[in-house]
Amino acid sequence: MPVLLHSPLPAIEELQQEGCAIKYAPGLQGKMRVGIVNLMPNHMDTERQWLRLLAKIPLLTEVHFIRLHSWLPKSASVNHLQQHYQTLDQSSDFDALIVTGAPLGTKEYEDVPYWSELRELFDMANYYANTTLYSCWAANAALYHFYNIPRRQRARKVSGIYEHRILRQHEMVKNMQIGVQFPHSRYAEARQSVLFAHPEVRVVMQAPNAGAFLAADDLRRRAFIFGHPEYEADTLQKEFKRDFDAGKDPHPPEYYFVDTETFALPKPMWQESGAVLLKNWLNLWAR
Predict the structure, then answer these.
(1) What is the dihedral sign for C-alpha 271, 273, 274, 276?
(2) Contact by Cβ (8 Å): 34, 98
(3) What's the CA gap between 49 and 68, in Å, rounded?
(4) What is d(CA 213, CA 183) in angstroms, rounded to the nearest whole number?
(5) Side-chain-side CA neighbours of residue 117 (13 Å)
(6) Within the chain, what is the greatest distance between any pair of CA atoms?
(7) How far is CA 52 from CA 2, 263, 274, in A?
(8) How far, rounded to the nearest angstrom, does the alpha carbon of residue 150 sit from its chain's CA centroid?
(9) pLDDT of residue 75
């Protein structure tokens, strides 16, 4: 079943050429309404990545992209955001919300320009939607906001494709393969000892070499993903080049290149597993 969009995003044509089930259909309604709060400065790349995952799910999903009131990234097109995005208000009504990550791993939460508005969004998320999925930086920020779980800076950035193990049975990991691989990419994370011991949040999946990947607060229908099932094959390569050009002396992504001499890229097989995860999440809590 296709993903339906009520705004003619440029990503639609590109994804259609890949064979993705997605279309611009302003007059049609989906059985599932998903709002995506996009905090990434490279808005269009992030749109394409999440839409590709949602298009793999056998649900008629209507997707809306959301921006904050108080912040417009310098690198994004203001016209694009004003044309294709909406803001949240008291009339907003979604089955599910996704809050994306942001490249803010080395910045204190209170120093983020839109931290005040984001905290309000966190607090209002249960009014806007039945369930919320927080991704990467947003996941760590939400853990800090809701549960006072502190964040720690890692000695070196976690970057690579890692195997995972399922720590406890949960509907969100139903039909997930043993040893499933997902990308991780972050400079900082919720302090793992506090996260794993927290009575309200349960870590469901972990990568031994990278830390927690998936956690859940079942009572409040919150999901936290600390990796990147939405990433494309070359995303980690682009981030490595960005960090290198910024003079950060990064380590190459681990377990990533198929051939370390030619830097051949892997096939993004993790996207299929990411689609399974999203489908399980929506079936569990969004309906």
Answers:
(1) positive
(2) yes
(3) 20
(4) 10
(5) 14
(6) 54
(7) 11, 25, 10
(8) 20
(9) 67
Main-chain phi, psi angles of 105, to 5 degrees = -65, -25
Average pLDDT per block of 10 residues along the chain, 287 residues long: 93 96 95 96 94 96 94 77 91 95 90 96 96 97 98 93 97 94 95 96 96 98 98 95 88 91 91 98 95
Nearest to 85 by CA among 62, 63, 67: 67
Q: Rounding to the nearest 10 degrees, give the CA dihedral for residues 10, 43, 164, 190.
A: -160
CA 169 to chain centre: 22
Catalytic residue among 64, 184, 228, 239: 228
CB-based contact 139:79 (threshold 8 Å): no
One-letter amino acid at 6 equals H
Query: Terminus-to-terminus CA distance in the chain, angstroms?
Result: 17
Residue 106 CB neighbour total at 10 angstroms:
10
Q: Looking at the DSSP assignment, which residues form a beta bridge with residue 214?
A: 205, 225
Nearest one of 251, 160, 148, 132 to 191, comparing CA atoms: 148
Is there a catalytic annotation at residue 228?
A: yes
Two structure tokens written together for 248: 């950060």
Going by C-beta distance under 8 Å and a sequence separation of 6 or more, which residues neighbour residue 17? Answer: none
Catalytic annotation, pick one of 47, 136, 145, 184: 136
Q: Which of 285, 40, 64 shows the shortest CA–CA distance to 138?
A: 40
Distance from C-alpha of 43 to C-alpha of 197, rounded to nearest angstrom:
35
pLDDT digits (tens, 9 = 90+) for 151-201: 999 988 999 999 999 999 999 999 998 899 999 999 999 999 999 999 999
The tokens 């949240």 sit on which residue?
A: 88
Active site residue 170: no
